[in-house]
Design brief:
Blueprint lengths: L1 E5 L6 H14 L4 E5 L6 H4 L15 H8 L19 H5 L1 E3 L2 E5 L13 H15 L4 E5 L9 H4 L4 E6 L3 H16 L5 E8 L2 H10 L5 E6 L2 H9 L3 H4 L4 H14 L1
Parallel strand pairs: 1-5, 1-6, 2-4, 2-5, 6-7, 7-8
Antiparallel strand pairs: 3-4
């Protein structure tokens, strides 16, 4: 199972990613969780200790130079477009309860279309995780699809778009669905978050057109308290895991 999770900022992407990682981990599967959001906080949501400092790969200057042959930040020179990355998940991931966490970080030079050593290494690594790994891969993304090239996109089983009640969030979902189809992602579905009642859920479902609505994680004060206390949401609100189990089953039925 290869899942990419997107949506506008603050809608609950990381909460869903953490719950799904826990669901698949409980099934005895090895999960690779990829934090590709510039505001990286998936480590906290998965219960990694604060002392576990996970350096973003985009900031590992020595590694980038070693693998690509060029210094980070350099542009216009020669460097490898297919650097070796197959050993990096074992070397760079933090591991807890059979969940391996990798933090991608952001490329700060040249814009989203940057062809530089950092972006080449990240794209090759993500492509390796999606195309060649047999593990469950769950990527917590930013709103755009910059992390996914066309080759990677074909390996994504489902693009999940997280939506909260509100037209801006719904329009973001529609835009992501359009972008996803343009790069070759065939299955896009929506999961609701922070929903207070069935009426809000129905409003979202009826606004999505043909995009499947797989269910929702309700608004729950315990999730806010988990964020404030630095605890994983599946520990403070364990009963919500049953809802995410149902969502996971619907994801698998989409394949």
């Amino acid at each position: 199972m290869k899942l990419a999770i997107s949506g506008k900022g603050g809608v609950g992407k990381t909460t869903l990613a953490a719950f799904l990682a826990r669901v698949y981990q409980k099934r005895g599967m090895r999960v690779i969780a990829v934090d590709a959001d510039p505001d990286a906080n998936l480590a906290q949501a998965l219960g990694f200790e604060k002392e576990c400092k996970i350096a973003p790969i985009s900031e590992m200057k020595e590694l980038i130079e070693e693998r690509t042959g060029a210094k980070p930040g350099s542009m216009g020179g020669f460097f490898k477009l297919n650097p070796k990355v197959d050993d990096l998940p074992e070397k760079l991931a933090a591991v807890k309860d059979n969940i391996c966490l990798m933090v991608m970080g952001t490329v700060k030079t040249g814009g989203s279309g940057c062809v530089c050593p950092e972006s080449v290494l990240l794209k090759n690594l993500i492509q390796h995780l999606f195309l060649e790994r047999k593990d469950v891969v769950i990527m917590d993304m930013e709103a755009g699809l910059e992390h996914l090239g066309r080759a990677t996109a074909f390996a994504v089983d489902v693009m999940l778009v997280v939506v909260e009640p509100g037209q801006r969030s719904i329009e973001t979902a529609k835009n992501i669905q359009k972008l996803a189809s343009e790069i070759g992602i065939k299955k896009v579905a929506v999961v609701g978050c922070k929903i207070r009642n069935e009426q809000e859920a129905e409003l979202i479902k009826n606004s999505l057109g043909e995009i499947p609505f797989l269910g929702y994680i309700p608004f729950d004060q315990r999730i806010i308290e988990a964020d404030l206390s630095g605890k994983p949401p599946f520990e403070t609100a364990p009963d919500l895991s049953a809802r995410v189990e149902e969502i996971a089953q619907k994801i698998e039925n989409l394949k």
